[in-house]
Design goal:
This protein is α+β, with helices and mostly antiparallel strands. Helices cover about 20% and strands about 20% of the residues. Strands 2-1-3 form a three-stranded mixed β-sheet, with no helix packed on it. It is elongated and about 65 Å long. About 15% of the residues are buried. The structure holds zinc ion. Zinc ion (ZN) binds next to loops.
Length: about 110
Amino acid sequence: MKYRCPVCMYEELPFPPRDYHICPCCGTEFGNDDADSSHKELRDAWIGRGYPWFFGLPPLGWNPEQQMLNAGLFGFQRAALKQLHVRLQPVSARTFQITGFDEVADNSASVIAA
Ligand SMILES: [Zn+2]
């Protein structure tokens, strides 16, 4: 039997989310961390930290955004997104049209005029 974490929506908890068990994904200690904060508040804080995996190494292919999407959470912020790569097409001497963009999770972003 697997259980879903009500904070980060990790679906492979080997125990129910209570009795001071700790989610290996978001690190929530149930009965302690969620005594004074709602699950949404804890989730927002975890997302705000860039949704890091808590214990050891994450499972191969682990995707925290997909994990939340699978649980029906569509309104979360993309906290890991720091910059965009933007593709520009010159329209005139002073005007560019954005033809596309790529999300970048580090600070290597640049602007390239096509
Ligand atoms: Zn969790």
